[in-house]
Structure formats: structure tokens, C-alpha cells
Design a protein that fits this description.
The chain is an alpha/beta fold. Helix 3 packs parallel to helix 4. It is built from twelve helices and 14 strands.
């Protein structure tokens, strides 16, 4: 099996290329996705090779992008919409929650909306406001939408293809601070044999405490686990991968073994994914827990100016501090 070392961004680009090659009904649309190749160059070279009828530069109107994609999806196309930055998705929010999420239910199952909404999200790139947000809870809360997020190049390559092949509308969150991180990617094999799209996975095995994360925080938690190992603690890191539907089976199995759990995400803690995950783990694993489920999150404030964003983002020290508190009970 052919394996190459790719950045996460290049893995997405390669996965999009394979999807375009596989299905003539796949179209990519968004602001500057064509000639420029996207603000992060994720669609670089695709318009040149597939033409401007399949890789489409749109006006600067997110609601127009999503509204047009709904029509295309109803007519049998598989549109892949790029929202340039996380904070730009809100003009399209009404289209997403009122149309994209509801059409299948409203039609009593007669109409499918096979579309993907790609959103680079999270902080850590020194950007100005509206460029570093974590809006995943808005979409995970909305019935009718599926929400996934990749954390490494291997998952980026396969998950984007799986999302495009799905008959359901999927919000595909891309951790922009990880676009340039490299990793091995297995490029061959049928899509049907790839790791399931809506399944969590153990990213690092451990015995002493469970750390749950997704997207950009998976790398942070893996680094924390490496640091903890130097002090004799083995942390098990679970990459959730899918936020709606949540797959917590690997988390339950892990917590029943370790007895301790820390949930980590960049988004603010108030009503974040961590609260739902903590509640479910407490319900399912109550008699196995040696301490309360703890959360490490962003703060309940607007995302700060870039010069102080490192004070806002969960980091290795905050994760390890939460693990220490879990052992303090």
C-alpha cells in the first residue's frame, strides 16, 4: 500500500482531487477556491485540472453559496462548499439550520442533501477577529446535520472523501492551526475499507487516565501524554473524530479501565461539547469513576486579540493540571 508523508492541508487537497476524479457530480464552490486555490491553498490546482464548472469561484456571499448548493444537491450533485474562515459562517447559518438540516425530514425522506460544508476552525494562527472561532456546538446541536473533524493527515485524506460520498449533509471542520503538520497517509485502497467516518478512535493507549479531544486539541493532548509519561503516568488519548453523532463507545471502555477522564476542546466551556460528553460519561461510567469528569476549554469570552491568544487556548500545562486535579480526589 502506497504511503506518503503529507501535510494535513495537502492530504485534504489530495482527497478532494480523488473525489472529483471518482464522481463527475462532485463540485467545489466557495470564495477564491478556484484560481487562488483557497486562502489556505487547500483547493490549489483543482480548477486548473477540472475546470471552472466543477471548481467554482463564488461571490463573497456565504448564504448564497449554501443556498445554491442546496439546489445543486437536490438536483443530484454533490457540492462541497468552503467557508473561508469559521467566523464567516454566520451569514449562512439560517440556510444551514433551516434548509440543509431540515430538507430530508421535511420531505419525509424523499429528498437527500448530499453536501459538505468545509469550515477551517479554531485559533492558533495569529489572526484578527472572526478568524479563530470554534462554532461546532451550534451545528452539533442541530438535528439533521452531521459534524466531523479531522486531527491528522491520514484522517483528513479519508474523511473528506467519506463525507463527500455520504448522502447526508455534513459540516466538515478543519483545524486550521494543523494544516501544515505532517504525517503518513495511506493513499490506496477502497473507500469502503477506510476507518468508519462516524467512529472515535484511541490515538494513544494508556492506563492511568483518559483524555478526550477532537480536532486541533488532539495534538495538544498527545503532547501532554508524552510529557506525563516522563513522570510515570500513562494517559490514554481518544480522538473523538465525530461530534454528531457522538461515538463515545471507545471513551466508555477507556474510562471504565482508567477511572479518570478529562475532556479538552478550544471552544468556550459554557454549553460546549465537553459538557455533553461529561454528562454521558458520568451516566454510563459512574461506578468506575475515581474523580469527577473535568474539562479544559477556552474561556467564556469572545476570542481574544492574537497577541494574547496563547493565554486563551488550552495548552499542555492546562491539560496536565487537570490530570493532576483528577488524581487529587
Amino acid at each position: 500500500m502506497a504511503t506518503e508523508t503529507l501535510t494535513l492541508g495537502k492530504a485534504l487537497n489530495t482527497g478532494l482531487r480523488r473525489a472529483l476524479e471518482h464522481d463527475q457530480k462532485v463540485v467545489i464552490m466557495g470564495e477564491d477556491v478556484g484560481k487562488l486555490g483557497g486562502v489556505f491553498r487547500i483547493t490549489d490546482g483543482l480548477q486548473k485540472d477540472f475546470g471552472d464548472q466543477r471548481v467554482i469561484d463564488t461571490p463573497l456571499a456565504e448564504s448564497g453559496i449554501i443556498g445554491t448548493a442546496v439546489g445543486l444537491a437536490i438536483r443530484g450533485f454533490r457540492p462541497v462548499c468552503e467557508i473561508q474562515f469559521d467566523g464567516f459562517v454566520y451569514p449562512a447559518y439560517d440556510q444551514i439550520v433551516s434548509q440543509v438540516a431540515k430538507m430530508h425530514y421535511r420531505s419525509q425522506g424523499k429528498v437527500r442533501i448530499p453536501m459538505v460544508i468545509r469550515i477551517p476552525y479554531g485559533g492558533g494562527i495569529g489572526a484578527v477577529e472572526h478568524h479563530s472561532e470554534s462554532p461546532e456546538a451550534y451545528f452539533a446541536h442541530t438535528a439533521g446535520l452531521k459534524v466531523v473533524t479531522c486531527a491528522n493527515p491520514q484522517d483528513a485524506y479519508w474523511m473528506i472523501q467519506q463525507a463527500i460520498a455520504s448522502d447526508d449533509p455534513i459540516v466538515f471542520l478543519e483545524p486550521k492551526r494543523r494544516y501544515w503538520e505532517k504525517g503518513p497517509v495511506e493513499l490506496d485502497g477502497p473507500l469502503a475499507e477506510a476507518y468508519p467516518l462516524h467512529s472515535a478512535r484511541v490515538a494513544r493507549a494508556g492506563t492511568d487516565a483518559t483524555v478526550l479531544a477532537y480536532g486541533p486539541m488532539v495534538r495538544t493532548c498527545l503532547d501532554a501524554a508524552t510529557a506525563a509519561a516522563e513522570d510515570g503516568r500513562e494517559l490514554e488519548v481518544v480522538d473523538l473524530r465525530t461530534l454528531s453523532p457522538l461515538d463515545l463507545t471507545p471513551a466508555y471502555e477507556s474510562v471504565r479501565r482508567t477511572g479518570r477522564c478529562v475532556v479538552v476542546h478550544e471552544a468556550p466551556g459554557n454549553l460546549g461539547l465537553g459538557a455533553e460528553i461529561a454528562a454521558r460519561i458520568t451516566e454510563e461510567c459512574f461506578y468506575s469513576l475515581e474523580s469527577p469528569v473535568l474539562r479544559v476549554t477556552g474561556f467564556d469570552t469572545p476570542y481574544p486579540a492574537s497577541r494574547v491568544e496563547e493565554e486563551y487556548l488550552p495548552d499542555l500545562d492546562r491539560v496536565l493540571d487537570a490530570v493532576d486535579r483528577a488524581f487529587g480526589w
